[in-house]
Amino acid sequence: MHTSVIDLIGNTPLMPLRRVVSPAHARVLIKLESMNPTGSMKDRAALAIVRRAVEENRLQLGETIVECTSGSTGTSLASIAVALGYKCRLVTSDAFSEEKLAHMRALGAELEIVESDNKRITAELVKAMIEASRQLGLVPGHFWADQFHNPAVLSGYRALGDELWNQTGGRIDAFVQVVGTGGSLRGTAEVLKQHDRDIRIVAVEPAESPVLSGGLPGGNRIEGIGMGYLVPLWNPALVDEIITVSANDAMAMARRLAREEGLFAGASSGANVVAALRLAERLEPTATVVTLMIDTGIKYLSTEVYKEH
Q1: Do 180 and 270 sit in the same domain of this protein?
Q2: Looking at the 3D structure of the chain, how many domains does it have?
Q3: How wide is the angle at C-alpha 257 spanned by C-alphas 294 and 201, nearest 5°?
Q4: Catalytic residue at 31?
Q5: Per-residue pLDDT averaged across 230-242, rounded?
Q6: Which of 197, 201, 200, 218 is nearest to 209 (CA)?
Q7: Catalytic residue selected from 34, 76, 268, 269
Q8: Domain boundary among 94, 113, 144
Q9: 97 and 20 in one domain?
């Protein structure tokens, strides 16, 4: 029997995509990170951050965890704070879904909202949110999670790499993942490369803001990815290829996943699948591409991903 919501984090299922993938292409497996307690892979990173802070005596019982967030990391931190006896104060924006803001508040988090430019996710917005959370972290009794720089994030995703390896029986030809803070791609890829150095690591970013590919930053409509600048945890030496996906294509794929596969996901997961399918087209049918369903579509019902479709 599980004793806490903490015990439910990780060990998420892996399944093949059946209807959006051509049988002539490589098989595509998707790991359902939406099965984590708050419906997101960010539960892994949030727990690792809190555990490391406690181990290093930087977070005491009853103190306040502070972070900037597009919603998922904040929700994860808020849930863990409830489970372990902390408070939570989060910096977010109107650029992110109403569901995410409501979810964080429901878990008892105090929110500070940074206004966006017409709900676009830009480098300026991200940096403003980071600075606001840094300032809050200076308040006595407050601990700043600092997910963009915190190496504990990487340790949170190492188990994900081992899970993928074990669930596939070591049959992985490529791993595809979008880049937000860069932690999930890097932490997972480092472990997969330890298992097999020939596994192809593919990063995914918004076509509207292709900074990892050497392009110019721009306004991005895929929540949680495409920060508009080279994030500190980004390690290009680990990455074999970068694929750009437009917001429209990512959202269309999220809707296809719901209607053809019965998988209810957000646009970042849609971007993952678009990129995985493009890669699968170039590989033999015997090859295996793995990617992540990052979170649940319930977080995006009020957004353009699903509204009026």
Answers
A1: yes
A2: 2
A3: 45
A4: no
A5: 97
A6: 218
A7: 268
A8: 144
A9: no
Residue 152, domain member (yes or no):
no
Contacts of 142 (CB under 8 A, 6+ apart): 63, 64, 65, 66, 89, 136
Range of the domain at 282: 5-35+158-300
Q: Confirm whether 62 is domain-assigned.
A: yes
CA distance 124 to 156: 27
Q: How far is CA 189 from CA 58, 116, 130, 182, 228, in A?
A: 28, 32, 25, 11, 22
Q: Is 42 noted as a catalytic residue in this protein?
A: yes
What DSSP string runs through 188-211? HHHHHHHH-TT-EEEEEEETTS-T
Distances in Å between the alpha carbon of 86 and those of 58, 71, 82, 146, 204?
A: 13, 18, 6, 17, 34
User: pLDDT per residue over 243-274, tens digit each?
Assistant: 999 999 999 999 999 999 999 999 999 999 99
Could you give the CA distance from residue 96 to residue 30 in angstroms, rounded to a whole number?
25
At 239 the pLDDT is 98
Q: Which residues does 197 contact at the CB level (< 8 Å), separation at least 6?
A: none
Does residue 150 lie within any of the structural domains?
Answer: no
Q: Among residues of the chain, what percentage have pLDDT more than 70?
A: 99
Residue-wise pLDDT for 97-116, tens only, equals 999 999 999 999 999 999 99
pLDDT at 128 over 70: yes
Q: Would residue 149 count as lying in a domain?
A: no
pLDDT range class, residue 159, cuts 50, 70, 90: very high
Q: What is the pLDDT of residue 3?
A: 84
d(CA 186, CA 234): 7
The residue from 42, 93, 133, 155 that is catalytic is: 42
Contact predicate 285/28, CB 8 Å = no
Assess whether pLDDT exceeds 70 at residue 309.
Answer: no
pTM equals 0.95
In this structure, how many other beta carbons lie within 10 angstroms of the beta carbon of residue 53? 21
**CATH number, position 253:** 3.40.50.1100
Same-domain pairing of 72 and 210: no
